[in-house]
Amino acid sequence: MYRTSSIAIMLTFVLGLAGPSRLLAQSLTIYYGNNKTLQDCQVVSVSEFNVSVEYVPFLPGVYTRTNLSLAEITGIREFSRANRYTPCLMVLGSYLGVRFFFKERGSIEEMTLSERFATFLDTPLNFITTISVGGAVGYLTGHYLLGGNHELIALNELSNAEKQSILAAYMDVP
């Protein structure tokens, strides 16, 4: 019982310490124009007026490059590993919650009618509670140890030189 839960905790901890520089921004969502977006893209180059972006439009492994005007870009949002692995850790947390903390009700044949009526919701409520609490712990663990979701960086009121310096920081991300 303790071995399985300690292995899951250690695995989560190791994933969180796998290197914060590699975990932050693997790709970006770029907002430009009139509510247009490019999701899961990487900045290839940034010049004084243009940004060259590489993204996967439909087929995995087929990359498309496009140039965007720096003046049209209104915001960027980082995509981190927490977005990818947090749902898995949430399911793992729910499983561990049910496996180790779910209490089954005693035999119903030994109860009186009033005891049966008073405790008929115990099992479903306990089940829902263990799933919810285990999933919440898994989600929070994944969210905080793996870097979390990064907020939208608004670039509306910035000059082209400031946008260029912000976007240039994302060129070195593997």
Summarize the structure.
The protein is 45% helix and 22% strand. It has helices at 2-16, 20-23, 81-101, 113-118, 122-145, 160-168; strands spanning 27-32, 36-46, 50-55, 64-69, 73-79, 153-154. It has a six-stranded antiparallel beta sheet with strand order 4-3-2-1-5-6.
Distance between the termini: 39 Å
Which residue ranges are poorly predicted, with pLDDT under 50 across at least 5 consecutive positions? 19-25
Main beta sheet:
6 strands, antiparallel
Q: SSE order in H/E notation?
A: HHEEEEEHHHEH
Helicity range of the residues? Answer: 40-55%
Task: Specify Rg, calculated over alpha carbons.
Answer: 24 Å
Name the beta content range.
15-25%
Oligomer: single chain
- The dominant shape is elongated
Structural class: alpha+beta
Whole-number mean pLDDT: 78
What strand line-up does the widest sheet have? 4-3-2-1-5-6
How many helical elements? Answer: 6
Report the count of strand segments: 6
Commentary on this structure:
- The relative contact order is 0.19.
- With 174 residues, the chain is of the alpha+beta class.
- The chain is elongated, with a radius of gyration of 24 Å.
- It has helices spanning 2-16, 20-23, 81-101, 113-118, 122-145, 160-168, and strands spanning 27-32, 36-46, 50-55, 64-69, 73-79, 153-154.
- β1 and β2 form a beta hairpin.
- Strands 4-3-2-1-5-6 form a six-stranded antiparallel beta sheet.
- The chain has six helices and six strands.
